[in-house]
Design brief:
Blueprint lengths: L4 E7 L3 E3 L5 E11 L13 E8 L9 H14 L6 E7 L3 E5 L7 H9 L12 H13 L7 E8 L6 H10 L5 E7 L5 H11 L3 E4 L5 H13 L1 E12 L4 E9 L3 E2 L10 E10 L4 E9 L5 E14 L3 E14 L10 H24 L3 H18 L2 H17 L5 H15 L6 H7 L4
Parallel strand pairs: 2-16, 4-5, 4-7, 7-8, 8-9
Antiparallel strand pairs: 1-3, 3-14, 5-6, 10-13, 10-15, 11-12, 11-14, 15-16
Helix pairs in contact: 1-2, 1-6, 3-4, 4-5, 7-8, 7-10, 7-11, 8-9, 9-10
Length: about 425
């Protein structure tokens, strides 16, 4: 049976200097599911969704609640008879608007959504209560054949942030969580952690009118999922060390401190794969010196679940050739180095934010300047504009506390974290020797 995906290991350099101590090599491990990127053609998994909506007092600002109602009604209209959805609203309390076993009448469900502002649930923000209710509803229809996801939308700081993280972590093996933040008052670090730790998506919504479009993006992404529960296992050869690990696409974020077991194995979960959208991990490896010749420095295995087939896996070797010829080691893989540069820019932006919070404005400005030079070199116009706007705000306000500055920061985070895929012509420039 032909594999429904491609899985490859690409090293930043084919040749490694034999005499070098602690030679740094970047390795991209990338899986891409085959099929139509829009979810058309072939079967798809039915959906099992829990929608968690903030209905605190601030949601009435800027017509946020109106756009949420419009978005959820759109979602209901686009569900099939096989899909399941539950809708929960929260403030100081949480209440189920629609249970998974009462959604066959779409008109009745939409009337219930229209009445969300009539609920007597207070005006605060207890997101964990809403998440817990939605999780319980999703579990009523939990099956391996369904795509199980909780969508959380909020516009403010919540009580019991630790409880929110624990709920996502405790249930990540059964469902993923996508988190949407509206405005500038929410805790973006919390929402990012919820989404990243459970292999969902994080969205920053600067303009409330974007809410329906993001619900549409979530729905289309779920429709396009063709492979489930992806995991990359790597068995490293003796002497090879992992210095850093990053998710490299479709979004960029750190995967934490690598934990290499005694048997030289390390594992990275990457979640579900949408057709045509690469899911990849970028490793920074440190290699020991060796005699000249070809060497397998590791073996990578991609584990996944295919609808109607069950669990499967595919292997690929990570190989390089040791050499004493320094001219050979100058040849680089353009695609890998482009992603290395994008990850480096994301790290610079994050470090600049940390420096600014510590009051080190000059350091933050220098880091942002370096990041902008990187985006200009890559030709990433959107990221360049976003980071330039952020640096202008930093120079102007010396802080990120104001609404305009915070909005600019959140916009920059969103743009820099999204992986930019280069076309083949652009890659030719990266494939030239250094």
């Amino acid at each position: 049976m032909a594999e429904p995906l491609t899985f490859e290991a690409l090293a930043s350099r084919q040749y490694v200097l034999s005499s070098a101590e602690n030679f740094v090599l970047y390795v991209l491990l990338e899986a891409t599911a085959q099929g139509s990127a829009n979810g058309a053609g072939g079967g798809r998994s039915p959906l099992n969704l829990g929608v968690v909506l903030d209905r605190s007092g601030s949601m009435y600002d800027e017509r946020r609640l109106e756009f949420v109602i419009e978005a959820v009604k759109f979602l209901v209209d686009n569900l099939t008879s096989e899909d399941k959805v539950s809708i929960v609203a929260f403030a100081d309390k949480a209440q189920i608007i629609a249970s998974t076993d009462k959604v066959r009448d779409k008109n009745a469900l939409k009337r219930a959504i229209d009445d969300i502002d009539l609920l007597e649930i207070g005006g605060g923000t207890q997101m964990a209560l809403g998440m817990r209710m939605a999780i319980d509803e999703v579990k009523k229809n939990l099956t391996p054949e369904r795509l199980n996801r909780v969508l959380v939308l909020t516009d403010g700081q919540t009580y019991e942030e630790t409880a929110c993280l624990e709920l996502a972590s405790q249930n990540r093996d059964q469902m993923s969580f996508s988190a949407m933040g509206v405005g500038v008052e929410f805790n973006e670090k919390l929402l990012m952690r919820i989404a990243q730790d459970s292999h969902g998506k994080y969205h920053f919504i600067g303009d409330p009118s974007e809410i329906p479009g993001l619900f549409d993006d979530e729905l289309q992404g779920l429709r396009a999922v063709t492979l489930r529960n992806g995991r990359i296992d790597v068995n490293l050869s003796q002497g090879v060390q992992v210095r850093e690990a990053f998710r490299a696409s479709p979004e960029i974020y750190a995967l934490g401190t690598p934990l290499v077991s005694d048997d030289r194995n390390v594992s990275y979960e990457i979640g579900d794969l949408e057709a045509g959208v690469p899911g990849s991990v970028l490793l920074t490896l440190v290699l020991p010196p060796r005699r000249p010749g070809p060497v397998r420095i590791g073996q990578a295995t991609f584990h996944y679940e295919a609808p109607g087939v069950g669990e499967r896996s595919v292997n690929t070797d990570v190989t390089v050739e040791y050499t004493l010829d320094r001219t050979l080691t100058s040849r680089v893989n353009g695609r890998v180095m482009n992603l290395v540069d994008q990850v480096s820019i994301a790290k610079l932006q994050s470090r600049a934010e940390d420096e600014l919070k510590a009051g080190n404005v000059d350091r933050a400005t220098r880091l942002l300047s370096n990041a902008i030079q990187g985006t200009q070199r890559l030709g990433n116009i959107k990221a360049t504009q976003a980071l330039t706007g952020l640096m202008d705000q930093v120079k102007k306000t010396q802080t990120l506390q104001g609404k305009a500055a915070k909005t600019t920061l959140l916009q920059a985070q969103a743009v820099v974290r999204k992986t930019q895929m280069l076309d083949p012509e652009a890659l030719k420039e990266f494939n030239k020797p250094e």
